[in-house]
Write a structure and sequence with these properties.
236 residues; 2 domains; two-stranded antiparallel sheet; 37% helix
Length: 236
């Protein structure tokens, strides 16, 4: 009876969420009558994703030759990105024009887009192929995004595609202190995810707080002048 080579794919992750790994094994084929005996030794390809701090990430780039791969959308990348980084977005702008998408885009832009400056996106179907066109599976890649979630998802996809040297910054670029990396753009790396009305909310709150404190001190220290100014009724 003809022999059939079988293979297995095992994916696992450690409980501390520090490292995840991918293993691929090929089991030896059985004898094939009339043919030369074909045996393969059991082999393992192990890919690890290392989650590092921003300082550790800087050392990986400077000392170990890691290349920065930014997987954020084009909007956040444009606001600020690490100098000399490569950009392959995990999500791309959703410009589909079917009725359902138009409704969702309108709702999104009137809420998340207006208040938080979030772009309306969809998964990039060419993500893995685009990375493959730029890098070999042996390349050392430091994946970055704003909060750390997209880089983790991107690392999983690249693991499955055979990439073996991947690192991610824990909590993303929002945890990077100013000056850690040379950056380009109109803002700091940790603020690239902030846009829309949320960017002025803090300033408005600070101004209103200052006005209220000044008004309280004025009324407390100069009650007669405050009564005349605000036309307050005298206390009984």
């Amino acid at each position: 009876m003809a022999g059939i080579a079988t293979s297995c794919l095992t994916v696992s992750s450690r409980s501390k969420l520090r490292t995840s790994w991918l293993e691929f094994g090929t089991h030896p084929a059985r004898k094939i009558p009339g043919k030369q005996n074909c045996w393969r030794k059991f082999g393992v390809i192990r890919a690890e994703v290392n989650y590092v701090s921003s300082e550790e990430a800087k050392k990986l780039v400077a000392d170990e030759g890691y290349v920065v791969l930014d997987v954020r959308d084009i909007t956040q990348y444009g606001r600020a990105h690490i100098k000399s980084s490569h950009h392959v977005p995990l999500f791309i702008l959703n410009q589909d024009n079917d009725l359902g998408t138009i409704i969702k885009r309108t709702v999104h832009n009137n809420f998340s887009g207006l208040f938080f400056g979030l772009s309306f996106t969809k998964p990039n179907p060419e993500f893995v192929e685009s990375v493959k066109s730029k890098f070999s599976p042996e390349s050392k890649l430091l994946l970055v995004c704003q909060e750390g979630l997209r880089s983790t998802a991107a690392a999983s996809k690249l693991e499955q595609a055979g990439f073996q040297n991947i690192a991610c910054i824990t909590s993303g670029l929002q945890s990077v202190k100013p000056g850690t990396f040379d950056s380009e753009g109109s803002t700091e790396l940790q603020n690239a995810g902030k846009a829309g009305l949320i960017t002025v909310q803090g300033k408005i709150s600070a101004v209103l707080g200052t006005v209220l404190i000044c008004a309280y001190l004025f009324i407390t220290l100069f009650p007669e002048q405050a009564e005349k100014l605000f036309n307050l009724a005298p206390a009984s």
